[in-house]
Amino acid sequence: MNFFKRFIASFFAVIAAFWFMGIVLILILAAIGSADGTPSVANGSVLKISLNRPIVDYKGGSGDDPFSVLFEETTALDEVVASVNAAAKDDRISGISLETPFFFGGWGQAETLRNALIGFKNSGKFIYAYGDSYSQKSFYLSSVADSLFVTPTGFVDLRGLSSELTYYKSFQEKSGLRMEVIRHGKYKAAVEPYLNDAPSKENTEQIQELIDGLWDVVGSQMANQKEVSRADFEGWVNDLVTNNLEKATSLGVIGGLVYEDQYEESLKRAVGASKNDLKASSKLNKISTNSYHKTIESVQVDTSDRIALVYAQGSILYGEGSPTIMGQETMNKALKSAREDRNVKAVVMRINSPGGSALTSDLIWREVEKTAREKPVVVSISDVAASGGYYIAAPATYIIAQPTSITGSIGVFGTLPNASELAEDWGISSYTLSTHERSATYSPLRPLSDSFRAELTQGIEQTYQTFLERVASGRSMSIDEVDAIAQGRVYLASKAKEIGLVDEIGTFDDAINKAAELAEIDEFKLREYPRYKSDFERLLGDLPTAGISTLHSNLPGFISNYLSFWETVQEENGKYNRIQTRLPFDLNIE
After folding, report:
1. pLDDT of residue 421
2. What is the pLDDT of residues 217-226, one digit of tens each?
3. Pairing assessment for the beta strands 490-492 and 377-386 based on DSSP bridges
4. Cβ–Cβ < 8 Å for 103, 144
5. Helix (H, G, I), strand (E, B) or coil at 551
6. How many Cβ atoms from other residues are within 10 Å of residue 520's Cβ?
7. Engineered SS bond to 319: which of 167, 344, 489, 572, CB 3.0-4.6 Å?
8. Alpha-carbon distances, residue 294 vs 39, 47, 297, 414, 440 (angstroms)
9. How many CB atoms lie within 10 A of CB 327?
């Protein structure tokens, strides 16, 4: 028997060794293949922008890892924007080919890239766009192009904005799997799907106001770019004019219906025209933003002064953090480094977060507050800085939001998953022994006790009061004034400025310039924070959770979304963040 045990153990050990060696060999080959040096840029090149991955504002240099070619899952917006800005001044780049049928980012991120593309056009160079299809957000981005081409049998989705909400009250009653919920704020609707079967009046009100306000911004921008009146543009949308591509072409919504090879010929002609050559270039030289970014040389300014760019992005969860998760360890280390660096004269925080753990938000708030005491801190809001995302913005010296930014959501809630009814149906029993009346706090297999609910409610109220105090102090308002605009309600940038939550509507560049103004410096270099682990290191760390992701991918969408919320309230140690400062709903505006 022992022989067979040793044989089986040795057999699997050999298989594991070969598997590991194979992975290492693949990684080495990938690293060698990606280390070919700086790409060359030919004269008359076209910068190709193809964004086929989820967008993050910043990757923290982790993309420099040679193994990232295998594990890259996101696109860094700051690198794409930097490439566009550099290409505008690069005589070797004749134009841009925008080939992004689906933009996997937020409206604020799309607006940021769109502004950079407009700046590129103002340099006198061309932008063409092509796709077999266009999502609405991609059409918004691509509408800046001189000509927007579509495959003759493709489609363009231009129909206005909507936001779908899913509710689980009846599902919970039937399944026995429920969320125990406590909240403060009549607009704090992140937990509403677990309490109702339909949206409340307050939630309907705030979402409708959001999508109306957002459409007013992006609709006006698209109409202006197409050089038509807003009324005519709204007519196109209401009539679903892009359902008929030929009609859309005749109206000027679309530049032309062509196949990819015909589009390539159009690019050649455009390059030829830009080179004062009547003939199309015999060869089309395209370079991707990823490759082109490696060729960009930083502008050397003869000064030691720095402005720190601190990117605060992702849901806020206790722990280290990553490019998609904001943890206090990474964020506070970045803020401390910027604060203690004598050459850093000001800090710009680029926030893109719906919030998350109340504890983590407060830990990051403390570092922002300490930094703002010593040097100017300017917040630039990307897609969203809501709830915990606004909590950490509150102590800043100055807050700037983009026209499409969403902010506010000053409110608190607590959630605990409860499967006691399901356990009873399945014949699962749970018994707890304790030394004191309140020793046992919570178990997902037991109904929530009245005493523990009261304890959690007290914590919610204390956290909400602290939130009000943080905002009141940072925005020079009274607690009553903050409470009147709080209650978990979210606001578009224009309304947020009107009620005093932000100081200015502007761009990321405006925030940098404001920081320089407050620091009283004319010339400066930028220094980016934080530095994240490489893609490979993160992959190894994520292996234990791969099974969960696989499970979710095989579940019906509404159940997967339901379970995903359970994960967002978990800490790294598997315990639950009882108290959350999070965006009041899973915001998905299309």
Report:
1. 84
2. 999 999 999 9
3. unpaired
4. no
5. helix
6. 9
7. 572
8. 7, 13, 8, 45, 56
9. 24
Enumerate domains of the chain plus CATH numbers.
45-159+240-293 (3.90.226.10), 306-532+576-582 (3.90.226.10)
Query: Dihedral sign, CA of 115, 116, 122, 124?
Result: negative
Cis peptide before 417 (omega within 30 of 0): no
**Residues 284 and 46: beta-carbon distance below 8 Å:** yes
Quote the pLDDT of residue 193. 83
315: number of Cβ within 10 Å = 23
Query: How far is it, in rounded angstroms, from Cα 390 to Cα 139?
Result: 30
pLDDT band at 541 (very low <50, low <70, confident <90, very high): low
pLDDT tens-digit map of 506-539: 999 999 999 999 999 999 999 999 988 765 555 5
* Of 255, 243, 253, 182, nearest in space to 488 by CA: 182
Closest CA to 218 of 234, 242, 206, 241: 234
Contacts of 388 (CB under 8 A, 6+ apart): 316, 353, 354, 355, 356, 357, 358, 360, 361, 580, 581, 582
- What pLDDT does 278 receive? 46
